[in-house]
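Appendix B. Worked example

We walk through a single record from start to finish. Start with the input: the chain for LRC43 protein, Rostratula benghalensis, length 331.
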Amino acid sequence: SVSAAFWEHLRRLGLQDFPCGLGSWNKSRLDAHGSPRRGWLGPDPPGQEETMPLGEESPEALIELLRDQHSPWALPPGCSPQDQHLRETAVLTPKLVRGSKVFQLFRSLRIIGKGVEEIDEGLLQLHQLEELILSTNQISRINSANLPRTLKLSEQSLVLELCCNAVADLQDLCAHPPPELQHLGLGYNQLCSPSQDKYLTAAFWPNLVSLDLSFNNFMDLLGLVSQLSSLQKLRILVLQGNPLALIPTYRGFLVDSLPKLSILDDIHIGPDERHQFHGLARQPEQIRNEARVVVSIGEIKGVPDPSLQQQLEVGSKAPVVTYSYCVTYEF
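Next comes the structure step. The output line below is what the pipeline stores for this chain.
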C-alpha cells in the first residue's frame, strides 16, 4: 500500500537517528537556559532524568553532517529536496517530526517504483498534501475516497500523477474526484475508448489545466474531443502514443477543436498553426479512424513458391499438390 511505502521511506530517512532526532547529541532539545524541553515529550520516567552529556553537537554541526555529500549521513539516493528539509527539521525542531506530527510537513509525496498496488486510507492523514506522485507502480484501482482532502480543498497547484501503472478504469477515481485538481497524469496505462471518454469532462475535473493520457489505447478521436471540449481551463494535453495519433489530421483537428489549448504533445501551438488548421473541426468527414500499412516482402527462403504451377502430362493421374500460406502481422 501507499502507507507502507510511506513509512518505509521515513525509516530510510532516519529522522529519529543521529544526527537527527531528540538524542543526547542534539542541543536543539534544550531551552534557552540549557534545561531539557519537557513540553515536547513529557517528563522522563523516574531514574532516567536527562543530563548534559559531554561532546554534545551544535545544530549547525549536525546540519553540516547532513549536507556534506561525503558524509556517512548524507541523503540516501533517490530522495528529494523535501526529504532534505525534513531531516534538517528533525535537527532544528525535532518535535515536529515525532509521531503523527510529521504528516503536517508533507506538501508533496513521491512514491515511485515501489511496487505499490493500493491507495489506502492512510493517505488521509496527510492534511497538507498538494502533490501526489505514484508513478511506475502496480496500481489498477484508484479509490478517490482515500485521496487526501487537501487535494479537494487547497487553492495551491494540485497534482495527481499515476503514470506507468495498470489503470484501465477511471470509474472509482471519478466517484469522488478532487474538483480542484489542476494536473492529472495517466500516461502509460491501459485506458481505452470509448468506455473511458465519459470520465474526461468538466463534470469531474472543472479546474484541470494539464492532462497526460499518452501511451494508452484511445482510438476514437471524435468521441474523445467531444468530451475534452468541456474542459474550459485545459491548456496542456498529451495524447501521443495512442492509436488515434496515427490519424493524418490528428493534430490539426485537435488544434482547431480545442482553441484554448496552448501545448499539444509537448509542442507549443502558435498563431500560424491555428490559422493553418482553421475550420478543420467543422469537417469531421476528414477524420479517418484507420491507418493504412503497406508491407513489401523482398524475399522468402525455404518454402515452395505457390505461383509456379506444376507441369502435368496430358491424361496424367498424378495428384496435384497445392500450396497456400497465411501471413499475420500484429501492430
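Two observations about the output. The helical segments are 2-13, 38-41, 59-67, 81-92, 150-153, 221-228, 250-257, 271-276. Residues 46 and 265 are 66 Å apart (CA to CA).
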